[in-house]
């Protein structure tokens, strides 16, 4: 009998590093991505084709991708607009991600345009990508609450998600960008989305601002969601979302899922080594718990 399974998209190299106060050298980014792929991740979000003026930490996007020609099939790149897609095409990328907020308030701060303007641009972008055989995934930001507009209704999320699905996008992740969601809300929103758009493959992207990311993952899992995003060490957070803490920690969540009998395809032991290596490289403690706890326990064991 096959074990239940989930797919995990590791977003640390993009979503994790984009808000880190210092910029990691290109070889260190390449080493991080390589290490994550060797853990068994089938998809790693490697970088973003955003203008360096807005996210200087990812200004070396082309250089990172150029150093990984044999792994390009397992890499995903965030593209904020048509120009970003063109850069991704030139780099040989076969999977891109687009993002749009559930509210105009956040969308204006993040993308400098309205939700409807972004949806129109995404529709055009999907058409171009499809002609080149590029798969486009989407994320709906602030799907559970907005730092500028407050509460977000399921109807708002559904309107945006329906437009993405009509554009031809088959995989849509709902993002708790500021980490404000609770398990009951997560269950309610995902159940509603599945009723409205049953053909979509739904994913979840949680932040741990209030310490509820793991509980929210379990709630999404109960609704049948089997696609999750997280970052090694729990690093990250949107630079355009005031007060947002790090992402759901990949190794913490994956270790829990594996202990529950849920297959992830990821070698947790190797992932812990990658997290510890990243902590040394960044020179600061990372938010994740498991890599730190296991090191402490190992030091306390008798010789």
**Mean of pLDDT:** 93
The fraction of residues assigned to DSSP E strands is 5-15%
Number of strands: 8
Helix content: 40-55%
Silhouette:
globular
Low-confidence stretches: 296-303
Strand order of the largest sheet: 1-2-3-4-5-6-7-8
Radius of gyration: 18 Å
What's the CATH C level? Alpha Beta
Can you tell me about this structure?
This protein is α/β, with parallel strands linked by helices and 303 residues long. It has a single domain (7-300), classed as TIM Barrel. The protein contains twelve helices and eight strands. The chain has an eight-stranded parallel barrel, surrounded by eight helices. Helix 7 links the parallel strand 5 and strand 6. The longest helix is centred in the middle third of the chain and has 17 residues, at 115-131. Residues 296-303 have low confidence and may be disordered.
